[in-house]
Amino acid sequence: MRTVVEVTETVVETPSTITLRFPYEPPADPGQFVMVWIPGDDELPMSLSYTEGGSKGVTVKAMGETSRRFLSLRRGTPIGLRGPYGNRFDLSPHRVLVVGGGSGTAVLAPAAERALARGAFVTVALGATRADELLFRDRLRAAGARVEVATDDGSEGTRGYVTALVSSLLERETFDAIWTCGPEIMMSKVASAASPKGVPVFCSVERHMKCALGMCDACALGPYHVCVDGPVFRADRLTSTEDFARFHRDPSGRRVPF
Amino acid sequence: MADLGVRLAGVALRNPFLLASGIWGESGASLSGAWNAGAGGVITKSIGSTPRPGYPNPTIEVYETWGLLNAMGLPNPGIDEYPREIEAARRAGATVIGSVFGGDEEEFARLAHQIEATGVAAVELNLSCPHAEGFGTEVGSEPEDVERIVRAVVRSVRVPVIAKITPNAADPAGLAEAAERGGAAAVSAINTLRALAIDVTLRRPVLAHGLGGLSGAAIKPVGLACVWQIYRRVKIPVIGVGGIRTGLDALEYIMAGARALQVGTAITFGGVAVFGRLNQELSDRLDQLGIARLEDAVGAAHAAHL
Lengths: 258, 306
Fold this sequence. Notes:
The complex is a heterodimer.
Chain A: E1 3-6, E2 9-14, E3 17-23, E4 33-38, E5 42-50, E6 55-61, H1 65-70, E7 78-85, E8 95-101, H2 105-117, E9 121-128, H3 137-142, E10 146-151, E11 158-159, H4 162-172, E12 177-181, H5 184-194, E13 201-204, E14 220-221, E15 224-225, H6 226-229, E16 232-234, H7 235-239, E17 247-249, E18 255-257
Parallel strand pairs in A: 8-9, 8-12, 9-10, 10-11, 12-13
Antiparallel strand pairs in A: 1-7, 2-3, 3-6, 4-5, 4-7, 5-6, 13-16, 14-15, 17-18
Chain B: E1 6-8, E2 11-13, E3 17-19, H1 28-36, E4 41-43, E5 60-63, E6 67-70, H2 83-91, E7 96-100, H3 105-116, E8 122-126, H4 137-140, H5 143-156, E9 161-164, H6 172-182, E10 186-189, E11 193-195, E12 198-199, E13 204-205, E14 212-215, H7 220-233, E15 238-241, H8 247-256, E16 258-263, H9 273-288
Parallel strand pairs in B: 3-4, 3-16, 4-7, 7-8, 8-9, 9-10, 10-15, 15-16
Antiparallel strand pairs in B: 1-2, 5-6, 6-14, 11-14, 12-13
């Protein structure tokens, strides 16, 4: 079933991302997503960036036409919700490296917060094109994470991709698990860097979705359906497919390269 | 353990449970997954001439456990792109039935011919999607249209041709008779029932397309009635579809006259593992009733001469 609620708060996080907060009671865990419907427009899968209590939230980057329209939503706008759907991050590891690229950090922030609350030691490698696009840096620091930053233009932290930062962290320190979300090419590089160290990597992946019930096949990724088998996968399950970091499917089901 | 194997229009099926068209049918890996989970065969997504994205979301509305409303809008990658998915499923050993949709008999015939070339065991014609302008029900609601389209397809392919019939017509069994006259080797009944969901807060239909098609447990009695009537009026085999979730549902359809079955919406409850469970439950039911072969139960309920 679908619940229609009003947006209670919008927060401009960066020039290209916005958080929508709304009342939604069904319990959710970090890693899960909801289907968010803008009446008269479209319905998109969005990982929850706020999972605790009755005030949930999603954080959206303006990429496609519809997600751009999410940026124009205001307090009081009705939206439809169903879910939460999908699996969760395993929050049991003690020393965690969180790797967020761009808006991918949206799903990682509540996972890091919950892990920190249970006493985990969390390091965050945060990447963005430039300093003002770094998502949830202050939120993660406030929660007690150590946050290291890489920007493409060097406007904050290390200059370059976050994957270089990850490699250097893996050289210096040991981790029990890596959680990552961002462009698949980035996640695939994180998986390659972690593999020789034997650190398990968990990736939150995104695909075009329609039913979110594991039925319509729109989100097929190799033998998996992202909506029910994911969105969080152990990297070795993804790297063994022909699709990960290479192909996704468009709304017609055509396999197209990234 | 009862024998669940059936012959359907010359095609040997290891069990009667076919993956219904439109479910898990976009990728070869998914078709293979359904086969490996125990489906007796897999029916592809309905394929058209060109890539088609389908309608915007919301494309589905879920009603607890009893129903599912959808208006996907026949999304498919097109006949040029899709054969690679069928080939992947065939490499996994699956018995594949190719589903196609067209706007007229020439388009149906051409698509059926093209999909036959991928090595499918049969072709199913989607004459019954209830929510796609110019296709489906719009070309499959009149007996003369059904007969003409089926005849054109039968002339263009060697494999058996299956017509999937709409329940959204005054006399679905009359459509089945028309398909038989056109040379169909079997009919599938039913496709989804035309249906609508309204959100009262927003004062609008929920689905982006407005009208959709209802599937799932709610439509089982409707499907049974159609299969019952069709069985009495045609000689070709009937494939029962609509709300099959358990071995008992399956046997009801078989006794109403179905020789094979399609399963779709039930996959939302736990995935394709449903095929293994259905096989077990149907076999157990047959054993309890002392029926050694599934084929012996086909149409059994008609013996009561109602």
